[in-house]
């Protein structure tokens, strides 16, 4: 490695956190870990120090990363009994890489800063494949100097690392991304479904549209999946539902109406009702197909 | 010109048809024209023959192009008193370049084919700018050999000329395009509006999103317009409303539910209610802003 080894705490070693922590260890950093579940075997067999709780991690590390499922899990890891906050001393940095509420993130950051520490929100996109391959996109909110301090750790885990703005803006960017993706999936779905229902070749229409204003990576990549009718594996609808819950929850607290996002979430719910919680999110088209008892590909 | 001059009829010389006919004349084709409105000066001063009605055009030309506002106008031009149908003789081709219903297009084609003639639907995108610059995208439905026969005329008027499929598929493709564009505009609108409302810099979020799955030409080009708050000039909302009317009307007759398209149409209606009929369609974001009394750009 080209940088000084860092003393990094890692809380949450699940399907995302496990491989991410593994990359940090292989990059030469000194790790202190805690997870509620089972410790992954490669971490157990590594140089990482297993701690009794999140407090123990915060007492030993200079940079404490959390990678847990949802907003309440972050609240618990940071501020619960024997949480990170109880072990911090001034000058340390808390980096939440979970995808959680941007609104509550700002409150978490204030409480951490009140302890004389710094806070970055740094959610990722790219899923478990990106975590394993160290190709995650990382969207960061916080102070530039704190971002620079943590950057070597980010670089061990991801590829596109962007400081979007101040505290909370990383989470906001991630939520905005998931809103745009969900609604663009609906755009491609309704366009291709219309084309097929009207008797055209959806694949040819998709190709014709890719040259013009309608073009998007989703029409290209996920539109192709819709036509080929492949929904597994992929980015699971259940995960996108969680992200849109964040979007709609945050929007409510911000007094913002997002009618398209709400509708997209309902279509994902319809997919789940059809047994599609594990489908790729392009499977949203199947909820629209079911509405009209018609599938793309039928003549 | 590299091809034989064609005897082309042109019916409808408005903001689109006028410049399109002008390109055909300059390409060396022999034109027979009829329009309900005033004959454009450059056409009047050209080699084109002005006919008394659509019948006169069809009697003289081998290829008869219609470029009129809406489905009833095409019906009238083709099958009304002294319409195209009354002047056709076997072997001629009718090419409807208007943007109209794909469902009724198939009926029009059947009636024309019953007269021993051929029919192409060939709607365009690119607007009046594309018409003036001969850079229209042309989406064609019909038989391949008929497409080849008319191709030299298309090439005088446009750049991206695609035979999408059989009769009606050109109109279907155009409608699908407008569905995808409208819903992708809503996708960019809701994502950027969320980002701004949550306190992030919408421009930075847009940039961060352009690298990933959320990327689209609309997020790029129209997202920029949303942030800069420029809604004129552009593709007028009133025209996109007409296209979504076609989409929803055709969808109804096809027993297809398009909930996102319906919602997008309502947002365009809200823009019109705000005086935005002539706004660029990226102005849809303003209907969403009005819903929540918040504008992108406010801190």
TrEMBL record, chains A, B:
Keywords carried by this UniProt record: NAD, Oxidoreductase
Residues annotated as domain 6-phosphogluconate dehydrogenase NADP-binding: 7-165
GO MF annotations, alphabetized: 2-hydroxy-3-oxopropionate reductase activity
InterPro entries, A to Z: 3-OH-isobutyrate_DH-rel_CS, 6-PGluconate_DH-like_C_sf, 6PGD_dom2, 6PGDH_NADP-bd, HIBADH-like_NADP-bd, HIBADH-related, NAD(P)-bd_dom_sf, Tartro_sem_red
Taxonomy, superkingdom: Bacteria
EC class (word): oxidoreductase
Entry keyword annotation includes Hydrolase: no
EC number of the protein: 1.1.1.60
Xref: Pfam families: NAD_binding_11 (PF14833), NAD_binding_2 (PF03446)
Residue stretches making up the 3-hydroxyisobutyrate dehydrogenase-like NAD-binding domain: 168-288
Family note: Belongs to the HIBADH-related family.
UniProt-listed PANTHER family: 3-HYDROXYISOBUTYRATE DEHYDROGENASE-LIKE 1, MITOCHONDRIAL-RELATED
Protein name: 2-hydroxy-3-oxopropionate reductase
Species the sequence originates in: Hydrogenophaga defluvii
Lineage: Bacteria, Pseudomonadati, Pseudomonadota, Betaproteobacteria, Burkholderiales
């Amino acid at each position: 490695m080209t940088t000084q080894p860092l003393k990094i705490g890692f809380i949450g070693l699940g399907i995302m956190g496990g491989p991410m922590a593994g990359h940090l260890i292989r990059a030469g950093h000194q790790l202190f870990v805690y997870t509620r579940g089972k410790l992954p075997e490669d971490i157990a067999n590594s140089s990482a120090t297993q701690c009794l709780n999140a407090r123990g991690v915060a007492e030993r590390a200079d940079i404490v990363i959390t990678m847990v499922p949802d907003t309440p899990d972050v609240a618990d890891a940071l501020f619960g009994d024997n949480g990170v906050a109880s072990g911090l001393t001034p000058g340390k940095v808390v980096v939440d890489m979970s995808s959680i509420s941007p609104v509550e993130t700002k409150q978490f950051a204030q409480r951490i800063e009140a302890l004389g520490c710094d806070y970055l929100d740094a959610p990722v996109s790219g899923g478990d494949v990106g975590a394993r391959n160290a190709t995650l996109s990382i969207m960061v909110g916080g102070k530039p100097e704190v971002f620079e301090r943590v950057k070597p750790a980010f670089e061990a885990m991801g590829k596109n690392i962007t400081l979007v703005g101040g505290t909370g803006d990383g989470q906001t960017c991630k939520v905005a991304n998931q809103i745009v993706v969900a609604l663009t999936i609906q755009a491609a779905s309704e366009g291709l479904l219309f084309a097929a229902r009207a008797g055209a070749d959806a694949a040819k229409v998709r190709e014709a549209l890719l040259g013009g204003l309608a073009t998007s990576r989703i029409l290209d990549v996920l539109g192709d999946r819709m036509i080929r009718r492949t929904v597994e594996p992929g980015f699971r609808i259940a995960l996108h539902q969680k992200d849109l819950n964040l979007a709609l929850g945050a929007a409510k607290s911000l007094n913002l109406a997002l009618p398209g996002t709400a509708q997209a979430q309902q279509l994902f719910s319809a997919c789940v009702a059809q047994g599609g919680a594990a489908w790729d999110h392009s499977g949203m088209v199947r909820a629209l197909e079911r509405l009209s008892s018609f599938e793309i590909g039928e003549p």
